[in-house]
Amino acid sequence: MARKIVLFMGVSLDGYIEGPDRDIGWHRVDEELHQYFNDELATMGGFLGGRVTHELMAAYWPDAGKSPDSAPQEVEFAALWRDMPKIVYSTTLESADWNTTIVRQVDPDEVRALKEQPGGDLALSGADLTAAFLEHDLVDAFHISVHPVLIGEGKPLFGPRHSEIPLTLTATRTFGNGVVILRYDRTR
């Protein structure tokens, strides 16, 4: 059975992944939610992201969790992120560390071949990369965390589409901080 490409993203209730100036301070990630993400992402076979997402992660996670004041969930995720194979889709990124491969463009045949390799599912993130994967019908599942806030403007997760993508709800979970996880599979 082929691995799935699973979109993992957090959004505001009005559908934005970030506010103006890339603000994500409105995300409600507490210890309970962070542990849930750690448990889910630890089962993945790799992370797929764009340059912006990768640079944000690479600026923080290599050294995160090294402070004695770090939460256990942060220490755990930092190790997970450093060790997990990562593919960054970028036409401009020159080099990347931390078990990262740079790919210049989304080639549907290469992605389908990647899905056929052994290992866990692949976690996709980033709105622009998601749009490219959706354009080529490469996203198999959606794992969206909806944060209880309206931010009014910013970068939406999904841009305009010209075709419908039917989905089947497979699970929901509500956290004490008001975040709701919505899990959908593609209806094929």
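That was protein one. Protein two is written in the same sequence-then-structure order:
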Amino acid sequence: MQLLPLLTTAHALFLDFDGTLTELAPRPEAVRVASGLVPTLLSLYTHLEGALAIVTGRPEADIDGFLAPLRLPLASEHGAQYRLADTSLPAVLPPDLEPVLRAAYDLAARNPGLLVEPKRVSVALHYRQAPQLAALCHDTLVRAMRHVEGVELLHGKCVFEVKPRGVDKGQAIADFMTQAPFAGRLPVFVGDDVTDEAGFAAVQALGGWGIKVGEGPTMAQHRCMTPAALRGWLSATRTHWNHLNPEREP
């Protein structure tokens, strides 16, 4: 098994949420946050002097709810919304997704295994409980997208998402790396899905490294097989840093 490299306080750490920090669940709201994760993230955030951000397809409110009372720097909805220095700003203007939303809801009404997740600038259609409907979900959204300008289809783990064209996790990370406290550090991004490949490309182009959680092809330089193993690595990093700088432990 490949050992993950040592994370240092000179890094900037970017973390996906679902399938990375937490195990995937049948429905987005059913995700459970492991005991100890929030204190570990708070400690790492303190040791990194704030250079830790969540980069996720989730809306901002979801992440804040799961990680309460933490309010970390955040790129939500695949980078459509940024939060730095506790200020949340849209990175793009929301497209008019009414045709996509209507088509998704109509399809879900006829197929109870489907779940529609409307967000601020995107619409996600989950088919984890009805995997045989993947092609139908894809074709339905593609037809609806013909009535909306400036959007593209993103395919993740048992989900299709219609989002603004050009918005991705890689661009979000690149933007964060131009701002304090991230600027001048070596970036590390951890993710599990094909939607995270843009993030791996971004950090590695900046001289940092990516960590893929789970199986499947990837451009990431390193791999961690499960979210539990990733959490163990983060916890071990916290313990190591606390031994070196105990005064920094919150």
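The helical segments are 37-47, 60-67, 98-110, 134-145, 169-176, 197-205, 227-244. Keep this in mind for the problem set.
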